[in-house]
Design a protein that fits this description.
single chain, 114 residues, mainly beta, 10 strands
C-alpha cells in the first residue's frame, strides 16, 4: 500500500484548500478511504470517510458542512475539499485505508493563519 498526499499549505482563516491523495498497491475501488489529521501534541483524529463507490460520505461534527470528500476510482485518487478553514483545523492531514489512520501516507501540513 502506498498513499501520497499533497495540496497542503498556508491559508487565511475562512479560506479553502483541496488535498489530494494518490493511492497505489491495492485495489483502490474496493476500499472505504478515510482522511485523518493530527495536530501538534494530539493524537490521530478521524475527519472523514468515503465508501468505495463514492456514494456515501461521513464527517466528524467539527467539519460537517465545511469539508467535502470525493474520489476518482479510475485514477485511484482521493480528495478533501476544505472550506471555511478555522483555528481548529491546522494539522498534518493523512489519507488512510482505515479510520484509525494506522495505514496512512506521509501526510501534508495545513496551516491556518492571518
Amino acid at each position: 500500500v502506498q498513499l501520497v498526499e499533497s495540496g497542503g499549505g498556508l491559508v487565511q482563516p475562512g479560506g479553502s484548500l483541496k488535498l489530494s491523495c494518490a493511492a497505489s498497491g491495492f485495489t483502490f475501488s474496493d476500499v472505504t478511504m478515510s482522511w485523518v489529521r493530527q495536530a501538534p501534541g494530539k493524537g490521530i483524529e478521524w475527519v472523514s470517510s468515503i465508501s468505495p463507490d463514492g456514494e456515501r460520505t461521513w464527517f466528524e461534527d467539527p467539519v460537517q458542512g465545511r469539508f467535502i470528500t470525493s474520489r476518482d476510482n479510475a485514477k485511484s485518487m482521493l480528495y478533501l475539499q476544505m472550506n471555511s478553514l478555522n483555528a481548529e483545523d491546522p494539522a498534518h492531514y493523512y489519507c488512510a485505508t482505515d479510520e484509525a489512520g494506522q495505514d496512512r501516507g506521509q501526510g501534508t501540513q495545513v496551516t491556518v493563519s492571518a
